[in-house]
Amino acid sequence: MKRLKKSQALILSLAMIISLIPMASIKVKAGVTWTPENTHVSTQMSPGDLIMYPPFDEDDDDDTNMVYVTYNSSNGSYLGSASDENGLEVTGYSDPSTGITYSKYRVTSCNYDWDTFSVELTGIAPVVQKTLTGISISSPPYKTSYTEGESFNRQGMNVAAVYSDNSSSGISNYSVNPSGALSTGNSYVTISYSEGGITKTATQGISVKSRTTNTYTIQAGAGTGGSISPAGSQNITKGSDKVFTITPASGYQIDRVVVDGANQGAINSYTFRNVTAGHSITAYFKVSAAKTYPLTVAGSFAPAAGTGNYAAGTNVTINAGTVPGYIFTGWITSDGRSFANAVTTLTMPAYALNITASWAPSGSITPVMQVTTTNLKGTQLTSWDAIAAKLDTLTVKNLNKTSSAILNVTSPAASCYIPQNVVAHLNARKGVELRINTGSDVSYSFYSDLDNSAFAGSNLSYTAKTGNVNGVRQQILDFVEKGPINTNISMHVKLPGAVPGQQAYVYLVNAAGQQTLYLPVTVSADGTASFAVIAKVKMAIIY
């Protein structure tokens, strides 16, 4: 420590006066002079700075002030002290414990009175730049033995980062690879940590054993336009079966179903049998084309009759054409509808449909029939012409033991043709019924009170078959000639073994054998089912 001469003290006094100028906005630099007025706790000083407390009377050599300075290391350990009259120069002390020579100090305390100025300085350790040099696993995880499929558990493992200054620090934001399911090929996991653009790794040994399982996973999924059930990941017990159902959404249809990468086609279900491994199943769908239904036109002689496949609601033109020697008498459909015109339009239903053209001989040909009345008083009539003439004047008085005007006529079932003129004469009377009996199976009733003007003659010949299907009786009636009757008549069908009062059901049967319910009827006291018909179609009566 240097003692200042009186001339130097004078110079320093001038410096102190200058220092009295406000310095709140001035950053203090090394080599400055410090006085009680500008020295405060946290003030930083450097070696070579002057700490001054000049006397108040510069001309009095006996008037002196003392300056005391204590030096501490950066951790607060005592390094040394110095004192002198009126002022002294700051010295750069060395810390024997670290070897650091301090180039900066911070004032940690300062006090002064009328003749003493005391300052305590603590060294400021230089900032040492450190870099990541490695990572270490100071303690292993609790778990180091695994079964394949499990993931690494870092619980209990302590990892530290090691730096270039030989310091270390615990870390937790490290990564582990593999991070997912472990396999039998994994004997260690790799721990990685990055800092300051530097990445370091360490390894932790593990063991992984094979898994013995009794369950397997089937992954099930579906594309746009439908669903698969069940969906997602399905755990299946070894040796068991699993069924998956595929359902398209409205407006879509199944395109294909892929099982373990193989296309199984457009199936709506798939069964995995005796499962012993994992599998996958995925259903794919496509926008469905409009569904079509077959229309079959029979009995037509036109080049383009209308046969084809049509969507429901489509208007289809059908054409019967022409054939020499015959006249067209109408269309009859398998669902019981009839059409009078040879060229007509029908709306396609949402099911298969058959439609048949009916024909009758042209000219004045009158079929020869074996017919006879059975309930006239006196001589019975044996020709349709005679019967037609009788209908003009028929009353109840002309009939045997009856209160109703019903004229009974028999005609063979295999050749039962009803001429137009007979029904035309019937229509001239009111309250008269013409009943044609064809044998033990069927009879027909024509009524004078109905409008029969469109009737042009009709062949009502038929075949009958009685059967029993799974304990259910049925009577099958099939007209020899299909087509419209062009009027309303009643059919009376004998049902062998039927119980009076029971229900019977009349079905229409199409060419494919499919049955459509026509109507239910109640069996009469004589075992007969009676119902109205307007067309000649195949029928099944179930009872």
Automatic annotation (TrEMBL):
Residues 1-24 form the signal peptide. Keywords: Signal. Residues 216-287, 303-361 form the Bacterial repeat domain. Pfam families: Flg_new_2. InterPro entries: Bacterial_rp_domain, InlB-like_B-rpt. This is Bacterial repeat domain-containing protein. It comes from Eisenbergiella tayi. The lineage of its organism: Bacteria, Bacillati, Bacillota, Clostridia, Lachnospirales.
